[in-house]
Amino acid sequence: MNTRHLLLVGILCLGTMLPVTYAQSNQFRETQAYLSLGFGPFTYYGPKDLSGNLNAASNYVIQGNLGVAVMGSFPLARNRFFFRGMVGLANFDLREERRIVGNGVNEFLTRSLVWFEPEFVWVLRSGRDRWMPYLFTGFGAHIADPLRRNPVERNDSGGPGPERTVFSWPLGAGLDYAYTPRFSFFVEASYRVNFNYVVRNEQRRIPHNTSFVMAGFRVGIYNPFKRAFLEKYTPPPLPPPAEIPQVEIAAPPPIQVCSIADKLNSVFFDYMRTDLDAEARSRLRENVEVLLQEPCCAVRLEGFADTREPDGIRLAEERIRRVYEYYLQHGIPPERIEVRPGQVAYPSCDKEDPGPGCRRNRRVDSIPVPLRTASCGG
């Protein structure tokens, strides 16, 4: 595969990025596990004949071929650090490489090549943006001719060699473009520095290195390390009641009731957003003041979104979580908060409602309900 072929493959790979148009914002990028598939030019830098004169300038070659990689990743810390495993395969068309090597020996050019890499990925920008640049590094192993179809092994001194496994240090950068919260395209480039040379008992250690430029797509899958919101915030079961000693019981205090008659303030969100703006925090602050004055009132949270399922359900539950955490941080105990599953609302929008979607459907309602305890008439 010559340089023109590699350039054509790169243009085709980048071309998959161009026709992507989607109306929604990518603020709600899923932090979950992903499966990825990429392909592009894989390039070898080093001696072309491992059994010849390794120091000769004419023995150095830069040769590219097609490479394909399959990757799986999952988040380690929110949406900033990921662990990724990569399995790659290169050297599909070997006619040009066999012509270059001739009668020499170089399994890394004339046979199929497989590599394995565990990697750590650092995301440079948060998942709220459609474009997500990232860096990655790790440790890798390249195996030439993994099926051992060619049993011949020799080096220039007649001893055993060459080896067919090298270990490398990958360094790379990439750019991810989200099409939906669970589907994205990416392009990345990496360079791999080898740790060991491939001819045993060879005093002149002249390593070879590789690079890989690829484009492809990622698909989000279920993440077993991510707990569901409702499960995460379910109150723990109460311990069994302890034995009460026989003591004189005083007259019980008068029973209080919940006297909040009107509905508490609802909070509204921007399109595809889950953060609380200044207006939402002001409304919740008023709710907190009312609830603190009424200890026998609980609050039931119901959240809505104006997007279709399944993304709308997850978006509504994320908005409920933000309001739930605000109440906890401002003195409302968890036993006074009830959480209902998120919903998708479809009433018609007011004509005065600017922007995409329907603002009154992007909300979380705080509904006052009586607290069921002995002191509150429960």
SSE topology:
Layout: H1 3-15, E1 33-47, E2 60-77, E3 81-90, H2 95-101, H3 107-110, E4 113-123, E5 131-138, E6 140-144, E7 165-180, E8 183-194, E9 209-221, H4 229-232, E10 267-268, H5 278-293, E11 297-305, H6 311-329, E12 337-339, E13 343-344, E14 363-370
Parallel strand pairs: 11-12, 11-13
Antiparallel strand pairs: 1-2, 1-9, 2-3, 3-4, 4-5, 4-6, 5-7, 6-7, 7-8, 8-9, 10-14, 11-14
Question: Could you characterize the architecture of this molecule?
Answer:
The protein is α+β, with helices and mostly antiparallel strands and 378 residues long. The chain folds into two domains: 3-221, Porin (Beta Barrel), CATH 2.40.160; 229-233 and 250-376, OmpA-like domain (60s Ribosomal Protein L30, Chain: A), CATH 3.30.1330.60. Helix content is 17%, strand content 35%. It has six helices and 14 strands. Strands 1, 2, 3, 4, 5, 6, 7, 8 and 9 form a nine-stranded antiparallel beta sheet that branches. Strands 10, 11, 12, 13 and 14 form a five-stranded mixed beta sheet that branches. It is elongated, with a radius of gyration of 31 Å. The chain starts with a helix and ends in an 8-residue tail after the last strand. The model is unreliable at 11-27 and 154-161 (pLDDT under 50).
In short:
By secondary structure, the protein is of the alpha+beta class. The protein is built from six helices and 14 strands.
What percent of residues are in strands? 25-35%
State the shape. Answer: elongated
Query: What number of structural domains do the residues give?
Result: 2
CATH architecture of the largest domain: Beta Barrel
The helix count comes to 6
Largest sheet, if any? 9 strands, antiparallel
Helix content: 10-25%
CATH topology assignment of the largest domain: Porin
Q: Kindly name the structural category.
A: alpha+beta
Instruction: Report the uncertain regions.
Output: 11-27, 154-161
Strands, count: 14
The average pLDDT score comes to 77
Mind telling me the CATH class of the largest domain? Mainly Beta
Radius of gyration: 31 Å
Order of helices and strands: HEEEHHEEEEEEHEHEHEEE
Distance between the amino and carboxyl termini: 79 Å
